[in-house]
Amino acid sequence: MARVAGLAAPEAGRPAQLGIVGSGTSDAPTIVDAIVDRFAARETPALRVTGRRLERDHALAAVQHLVGGTGDAADDRAERDARDGLLARLAARTAALVVEDAQWLDPGSLRVIVGVAERAAAQEIPLTVAHRPAPGDSTLAALDTLVGRHQPLVAHVQIAG
Fold it and tell me: Which end of the chain, N or C, is less surrounded by CB atoms within 10 Å?
């Protein structure tokens, strides 16, 4: 767990982008909490986005708490505004973005996170994304590709013992 947290928040060097893919029985939530704790220990605020199955039909539901009222807008403009607002907030606070249960993000929020991931390395924003495998989800696959550019995704499976 500490080793994976170290990949997300290394002691030195550029901020990392890390993707964690784990089954529903893995302890990925515990790892995400360890990553947030590691950022806190380094005095780096971590903004959290959590996908929720029951909010998948609500436009920008997962990011709304970070970027302000977006109403039920589901258009490209609302998504761009949410992406730009989130990037500005991350840059202003020199914060990390931690996304958990990305497989349950509403489509607009997922596209916002992909937009942030496209710019994270250039803007030196630490980014961690955790989700269950979701075969056939091309937007989630694009997100995995982006966060896996600098280091391989971490496949995490809890072994029953």
Answer: C
Q: How far apart are CA 55 and CA 77, in angstroms?
A: 20
The pair of structure tokens assigned to 18 is 């890390």
125 close to 116: Cβ distance less than 8 angstroms: yes
Q: Which residues pair with 20 in a beta bridge?
A: 130, 154
Other beta carbons less than 10 A from residue 89's beta carbon: 16
Distance CA(156)–CA(3), nearest Å, equals: 12
Closest CA relative to residue 90, chosen from 62, 125, 38: 125
The whole model's pTM is what?
0.88
Strand order of the sheet with strand 127-131? Answer: 46-50, 96-100, 127-131, 17-22, 154-156
